[in-house]
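Reviewers of the previous submission asked for a worked example of the structure-prediction workflow described in the proposal, so we include one complete record here. The input consisted solely of the amino acid sequence. No template or homolog information was supplied to the procedure at any stage.
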Amino acid sequence: MLKKYIIITSVIFSCLFGLNPSYAQSPIVDVNFKVNDIYEDEESVIIQAIVYNLGNTNINGFNDIDVVLKSMNDELIAQGTFEIDDLKTISFEPGESFFFTGAMNKTAPVTYPYKYVAESSVNWNNITELSDDIKVYINSEKITLEQNPVIINNRMLVPISTIASNFDYEVNWNQADKTVTLTSGPKSVKLTINSTSASFDSEIVSIDTAPIILNNRTMVPISFIVDAFGADYAWGAQTKILSIYY
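From that input alone, the workflow returned the following structure tokens.
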């Protein structure tokens, strides 16, 4: 078994989500794991790595990560699968990076030079972007969204900025803690990126789908946000009409 922690590698892996091909700029995940240092004790190989987001969208966590460390003549030094809860909730934006240290049980002494590889996928599954011909109405008036809605795990997420402005809510983004706060007079709604905990008029509530960042837009679950605004909505999958009423 692996000791707790880690990610490691210098191999870049990319994945395109299953998005509608009509959308011009699909979110691209391009993550680089670069080993910064490596050392060993009697039982373990310890690797320090820097993880870079080189894609064009937020990373919302990683699934299990398989790591293999070998000598240059392909002798196995260490390998394992990392299953760490913290990795599943990591969030970092394009251009951001973070530092990791961790350990694997070794099968042979480390030789120099060495090579390494890791395989994984980001923890953002079952995403479908709705095509450009979607029509959105609020109180029977057609509006234009700055980002197409998406479906994640059968839940629709919409860009909050345009929706909130139509309900006379002011939108405030806090980059430090990745929160978006919506205010209208004494009413307030606060959501955190990648968190299913939200607040409505200072009351903590749970939501079934966490907000995400997509193409620099904050996407929130429509079922929660229209309820918080005291509204209702209907979605016509065949006609691609989203209608919101209040």
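The chain has two domains: 12-119, 127-245. We consider this example representative of the routine output the project will generate in years two and three.
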